[in-house]
Amino acid sequence: MKYKRSGSKMEDVTYNIPDFPVYLCWGEFAPHTCYRVLSHWHDDLEFLYMASGQLFYNINDQRVRLKAGEGIFVNGRQLHSTCSADGSDCAFLCLLFHPTLLCSSPWVEQKFVLPVLENQALPFLVLRPEDQRQREVLDGLVELSRRQDSPLFPLEAERLILRIWEQVFLLSGQQPSAAPPQPATQHLTALKEMLRFIYGHYAEKLTLEQISRAGHTGKTTCCAIFQRYTGESPISYLTGYRLKKALELLEGTDQTVAEISFAAGFSSASYFAGIFRKCYGCTPTEYRARLQEDAPLPEACKSPRQQV
């Protein structure tokens, strides 16, 4: 299989069963998630089925809106992020699996897998129930979730995923097999380099110049690339990522707020508390207390995160 893990993604996908490359989970956007997932990419193929609510899916520099009953397929190694479309709760089913799961033989790989993975004109497919083939993919995702507790889940998952892929392969035939050269590809590569730099150095004191240098661009071009693909400035994105890491520490450790603020790269505990309140509508201490008491978060959390 030529399409192997490249080490170029933000983080490896944690599969439900070790050594079986499938991740399947029901998720939700609620106040404690700040109604968004930051930009990231991975080798694994991604499918999502919307059960309720609405969200925006950003893939590279394109944005699509999904509502209940719809879904999306995101091809491997595409930069993507999600956020609630209207600041309200939404629930969804997410499936990720590595392409090697589809490759029972080199012939199958060459004939039915690589033509989709390497189709530059196919970064994603929106799945709507009005189209029969697209509906079969959506139905397959739901059926897969029903089999998750089965002792034979790995076998049933392979069968259902192959059925899903059959429809994706047929749908991909409606797309051009080769895309014309895209000038934006160079910018997308630069962005991934800059994001990788942020992921590895967020705990340090970073400047716009350092971030732009990681992508081999000037500061002006760096800002333009971030705005195009993430909708944020580089520093705003960095702050958002630091908040994400701080949130993980608040939820998963007993470190003090001061310790968390410095571990996440904030210059002071007071600055961290102010930024956190702006995003989540409460202080880090209040957030942790409410989680421990299983109490609802403030209403101020129920709107998408503003740029910080």
TrEMBL record:
Single GO molecular function: DNA-binding transcription factor activity
Residue ranges crossing the lipid bilayer per the database entry: none
PROSITE patterns according to UniProt: HTH_ARAC_FAMILY_1 (PS00041), HTH_ARAC_FAMILY_2 (PS01124)
Taxon lineage: Bacteria, Bacillati, Bacillota, Clostridia, Eubacteriales
Residue stretches making up the HTH araC/xylS-type domain: 192-290
Database matches in Pfam families: AraC_binding, HTH_18
Organism of origin: Candidatus Faecalibacterium gallistercoris
Identification of the protein by name: AraC family transcriptional regulator
Lineage: superkingdom: Bacteria
InterPro entries for the chain: AraC-bd, Homeodomain-like_sf, HTH-like, HTH_AraC, HTH_AraC-typ_CS, RmlC-like_jellyroll, Tscrpt_reg_AraC-type_HTH
Keyword line: DNA-binding, Transcription, Transcription regulation
